[in-house]
Design goal:
This protein is α/β, with parallel strands linked by helices. The chain contains 28 helices and 22 strands. This is N-acetyl-beta-glucosaminidase.
């Protein structure tokens, strides 16, 4: 099948200049503690209960009671069929999380059952952009009361109850708590690209289940692009016959998926790109193309082909297609794309250039604005509100058009100044393969273009040395803060996953747990988003999501077994401490296009395709190393144990790689990890050799240079990357040990 690298996911970020740099987890705490300063906490399991996203108010004394096996839901308001099904889903989840059967019935109170009182207000339309999501929970040993403003609040409250359950040695328990909760933003979404790599219905349903648990409420499905068109069209059947490459959703499957999402309080917003990113449509119906004959051999052209907005037949085609697709998706919002139209598709085509001149369109943006306005009127007749990427702001757009801002805060401000509603996605592009902490650092309303890029120095600058990544960017004028009125136009934000280098077997691991961290940013007020506690809470949340059906670890293990069948232990140890390179450096096709080479499709069968952007093991080590240098000497045995595992693993990895050639790209990363681990051990006083300090600094400098090579999209396009596309995640901890060796302030 055609996948192709999108200029959208590479040059779109380059154009925006809003790269999020490398974040070193807890590296900001590297400075040694003063005598009157408590050391940072090590990476330990957080105090229960752990609820993600963090509630607006959570009151608990930490006490818990044995989880009852028999529950009764007592409805103060008659339940809808949707909510009745939700309570059965709740019972199933409780049983899984508890590790024992939990039954939930709806009836009058029985003395032998645990009561769950639910009261809510009915809503005429659900789910909807204006749905009410607030809820209050009182959890006590004699029962639970859930009060919600609408059905969404009931679903959110049930999700929080599941998160209050934990297993203990004596059996499952539930934390006592009082919770008052409401979302910060009304639009909390996930944008999933199923055009470049097809994702089956069960796989998407699995993501919807996880989305419900972390209170996300919009699934934005990117259903067409240059790579493929993914929905059955009965009016234009060549779209699935030719442009789907045999993988598409039938109309019945779409309707069922929409219903599946609605059951979980999640809206599905479809995106069918026009007038650009239309190669797949035009492959089936070339008569609507701007340029003929179409170039079907250059993979770069997959993302350049555009519809001809001067051809009246084009509008008939778009009208018929959008009307058919609109009927499948009941949500009032319809995303038309509108981004990255390559101007030469129009300006270098004589008939289009002549049309622009005759109709006084000074720029391609003006011509596109005319197209957008006509399409918006078509969709308005179907009861739809148009949504488009922020390029549509280049010329006038219809009132109420929702702008998806991906090119930085300047475009967010521009849309808000025009009085248009905005959804922000630029800082949350998950395909940049940044760790959860990097996305979490950026607030959706942060007006600094490079707010998160400041974190790039965290692993390249430390007490042991400094590596300055190359850059070709220039400072830009500051962006004025949004006014109070403008802030009301920010509907919310989305995490976005483009799938040039993500296939179905990788999807869960590429989305989670990072999407849970992003979900908290979208739901919780800034004061409740605490970076220092993120990874501990994220580990607990990820464990529950995996219990409830996510396949993040299962799929990663299966992929690793493909590379080294029966001998996965040494590769697993390596992958616990490394991550894939960032900021599209792993998207080789993008770099080929960028450097005007012949673009080739990328195989997704290397260790870097399995490596996670986050490593709980590495984050734990870094936190404990930093706590140790601040005087927590009790951690020394654990540090030595972990470093010894990493140091000794290189020999085992080399032996396995000799038998499994697919592992050979990671040999250099394995050697680098071992060298870092030996540097850490030497700093702790073990296995020291003459000149160990200089050797340790050289090892750290080399690792920091490898990290710096993908610290921004600008750097990536002009900098060689480390072998195997892997970078080290334990640099902050080793750096701290080496830099502070011999100068520790020991605590009692």
């Amino acid at each position: 099948m055609i996948t192709g690298f999108s200029i959208r996911t590479g040059l779109r970020v380059l154009a925006a200049g809003c790269a999020i740099g490398v974040l070193a987890g807890l590296g900001a705490h590297l400075a040694p503690a003063k005598a009157d300063t408590a050391p940072p906490a090590a990476f330990n399991a957080p105090q229960p209960p752990v609820i993600m996203p963090a509630p607006s108010t959570l009151q608990t004394d930490g006490s818990a009671f044995a989880l009852p096996a028999k529950w009764q839901v007592i409805w103060q308001s008659p339940p809808t069929p949707l909510l009745s099904r939700a309570t059965q889903r709740f019972a199933n989840r409780m049983s899984v999380v508890a590790g024992q059967a939990v039954s939930v019935e709806s009836a009058e109170k029985d003395k032998d059952t645990f009561p769950l009182h639910i009261q809510y207000a009915h809503e005429a339309s659900f789910p909807a952009p204006t749905m009410r999501e607030d809820y209050t929970l009182d959890v006590k040993p004699d029962g639970i009361t859930l009060t919600a403003q609408g059905p969404a609040g009931v679903l959110h409250g049930l999700a929080s109850i599941v998160q209050l359950v934990r297993r203990e040695a004596a059996g499952p328990v539930m934390a006592q708590a009082h919770i008052e909760d409401s979302p910060r933003f009304a639009w909390r979404g996930l944008m999933l690209d199923v055009s470049r790599h097809f994702m089956s219905i069960p796989t998407i349903q699995r993501q919807l289940d996880a989305m419900e648990m972390v209170k996300l409420n919009v699934l934005h499905l990117h259903l067409s692009d240059g790579a493929a068109f993914r929905v059955e069209s009965r009016h234009y059947p060549r779209l699935q016959k030719i442009s789907s490459h045999g993988q598409y959703y039938t109309q019945a499957e779409i309707r069922n998926l929409v219903q599946y999402a609605a059951e979980r309080g999640i809206r599905i917003v479809p995106e069918f790109d026009t007038p650009g990113h239309s190669f797949a449509m035009l492959l089936a119906y070339p008569q609507y193309a701007s340029v003929l004959p179409m170039n079907t051999t250059d993979r770069a052209e997959i993302n350049r082909a555009a519809l001809d907005p001067t051809n009246p037949a084009t509008y008939s085609f778009v009208r018929g297609l959008y009307a058919e697709m609109s009927a499948l998706f009941p949500d009032p919002v319809f995303h038309i794309g509108g981004d990255e139209v390559v101007a030469k598709q129009w300006t270098l085509t004589p008939r289009i250039a002549h049309y622009m001149q005759a109709h006084h369109f000074a720029t391609p943006a003006d011509l596109q604005a005319s197209f957008t306005n006509r399409v918006a009127q078509m969709l308005k007749a179907d009861g739809k509100t148009v949504m488009g990427w922020d390029e549509v702001l280049a010329a006038s757009v219809p009132p109420h058009t929702i702008i998806e801002s991906w090119r930085g805060p300047a475009n967010t401000a521009k849309a808000a100044e025009a009085g248009l509603p905005v959804v922000i996605s630029g800082p949350y592009y998950l395909d940049r393969l940044l760790p959860a902490s990097a996305y979490y650092e950026t607030d959706p309303l942060d007006i600094r273009k490079d707010a998160a890029e400041a974190q790039a120095a965290a692993q390249t600058t430390g007490p042991g040395g400094t590596i300055t990544p190359p850059t070709d960017t220039k400072p830009e004028a500051p962006i004025p803060p949004l006014t109070k009125q403008q802030k009301t136009l920010i509907l919310g934000a989305e995490g976005a996953l483009w799938t040039e280098v993500v296939d179905e077997d990788m999807l869960d691991a590429r989305l989670w747990p990072r999407m849970a961290a992003v979900a908290e940013r979208f739901w919780s007020i800034p004061q409740n988003c605490v970076p220092q506690t993120l990874y501990g809470r994220l580990a607990v949340t990820q464990d529950k999501l995996n219990l409830l059906g996510l396949k993040s670890q299962e799929d990663a293990d299966a992929l690793l077994d493909r590379l080294a069948a029966g001998e996965t232990q040494a590769p697993h140890v390596l992958l616990s401490a490394v991550s894939p390179i960032r900021n599209y450096a792993h998207n080789h096709e993008f770099l080929q296009i960028r450097h005007k080479q012949t673009a080739t499709e990328q195989d997704l069968n290397t260790p870097s395709d399995i490596a996670s952007p986050d490593s709980f093991e590495a984050e734990k080590f870094n936190a404990e190393a930093i706590a140790f240098v601040n005087g927590k000497v009790v951690l020394k045995p654990e540090l030595e144990r972990q470093l010894t595992i990493w140091a000794d693993n290189d020999a085992a990895f080399n032996q396995v790689a000799a038998r499994h050639a697919a592992l050979t790209p990671a040999l250099a990363a394995s050697a680098r990890l071992a060298a870092l681990a030996r540097a850490g051990l030497a700093a702790l006083g073990a296995e020291r050799t003459p000149g160990w300090r200089e050797q340790a600094r050289q090892t750290l400098d080399a690792a920091r240079k490898e990290i710096a090579a993908s610290s921004s999209i600008h750097v990536v396009t002009n900098t060689p990357q480390p072998a195997g596309d892997l970078i080290q995640r334990i640099v902050p901890g080793v750096d701290a040990l080496v830099a502070h060796e011999g100068t520790l302030t020991l605590l009692p």
